[in-house]
Amino acid sequence: MLAQTIRPERYGHPLIAFELERVSIPPLEPDECLIKVMAAGVNYNGIWAAKGYPVDVVNLQKKYGTYNGLHIAGSDASGIVIALGKNVTNIAIGDEVVLHCGWWDGSVSGDEIMDKSAKIWGYEINFGAFAEYTRVKQHAVLPKPSHLSWEQAASYMLCGATAYRMFHGFEPHTVKAGDVILIWGGSGGLGSMAIQLANAAGAIPVAVVSSQEKADYCRKIGAKGIIDRRNYKHWGPIEDLINPSKYSQWVSEARRFQKEIWKQVGEKKNPNIVIEHPGEDTFPTSSFVCSQGGMVVICAGTSGYRGTFDIRYHWMRQKRFQGSHFANQTQCTEFNKLVCQGVISPCLTRVFDFENLPEAHQIMLENREPLGNFAIRIGCRVEK
């Protein structure tokens, strides 16, 4: 099969890390399905894999006894089932499907993504979506929304299911009507899903952006408030807690940001839930503006992994910091139902040919066109 592969000697920026080559189609285990990939989604898993950092995804396979000297990334896809492992049930050859990236033992029940067997297909698990064929566990196969194109169907699951868990996975801090929700990077893949999920619950999504184009896009998909982060200068780790003068400057900017939330909402009301994923640049502000008894839920660290904050605001205001990683089977299924019902749009904004997959990831890495979701045509592309 033709695949966009990553090899250790090419680790680095996506433009040099990915390369088209022909490789063998992977064999199936009894609980796995072989899928003809029609289209694949683009997300940060492909960027991390290309860099080989913080995880060397090729050498990681030695741990699992599946070393091939290469890695095929891709954690979102739509396609057609073409072969079944001997233990697969309730799936038929010819089914049109979408795939989620949760990979765990079939015997696991409950919150599967918390199980010690849980991994991410296309990142920790090889033979992901960036190939003509991929193999997945049977539980990762969900029905394709009939009203969507292959490209649209390939683009939403990773970001959408991740956001769904952040909103619904951590009782009692689940989204409720009237809640103010602060969403960093509102115009991106995760942000666009979070805005729609907040609206579906009757909450008030406030999106943080860094350009007028992104602001306009967030309003278009339902953001009730917009904050342009370019108007503030307190980003990054808090370095000056022991320097009263410098720390007061940080607090002054953080309070100004907080007051803008109130202005956008129309009342003096702090976010009940903060959807946090940039990490290092924004976590101090998230922890400051979160409401008393509210939750900062974090699923990534695209700007860095150092999370600094003033702990006094944490204990005195009894806030919750919650880590969140992808989603469990129920959450994936429930989110996909919302897409099938037309409640959630995939927010697909750009489609690339298979040959241009490295460029798509480079654009995402450089934050050049971060509106909605990207997809790659593979089996559905028009042959030239």
Summary keywords:
globular, ADH-like_C, 384 residues, alpha/beta, NADP, GroES-like_sf, Crotonyl-CoA carboxylase/reductase
List the helices and strands and how they pair.
Layout: E1 2-6, H1 14-17, E2 18-22, E3 32-42, H2 44-51, H3 57-64, E4 77-84, E5 96-99, E6 102-103, E7 119-120, E8 133-137, E9 141-143, H4 150-153, H5 157-168, E10 180-184, H6 189-200, E11 204-209, H7 212-220, E12 225-228, H8 244-265, E13 273-276, H9 283-289, E14 295-298, H10 311-316, E15 320-323, H11 329-340, E16 348-353, H12 357-365, E17 373-377
Parallel strand pairs: 10-11, 10-13, 11-12, 13-14, 14-15, 16-17
Antiparallel strand pairs: 1-2, 3-4, 3-8, 3-17, 4-5, 5-9, 6-7
Helix pairs in contact: 5-6, 5-11
Specify the number of helices: 12
Strand content: 15-25%
Number of strands: 17
* Radius of gyration over all CA atoms, rounded: 21 Å
N- to C-terminal distance: 18 Å
Overall body shape: globular
Helix-strand string: EHEEHHEEEEEEHHEHEHEHEHEHEHEHE
Question: What is the percent of helical residues?
Answer: 25-40%
**Overall pLDDT, averaged?**
95
Biggest sheet: strands, sense, closure? 7 strands, mixed
Low-confidence stretches: none
Structural class: alpha/beta
InterPro entries: ADH-like_C, ADH-like_N, Crot_CoA_red, ER, GroES-like_sf, NAD(P)-bd_dom_sf, Zinc-ADH_QOR/CCCR
Pfam families: ADH_N, ADH_zinc_N
Keywords: NADP
Protein name: Crotonyl-CoA carboxylase/reductase
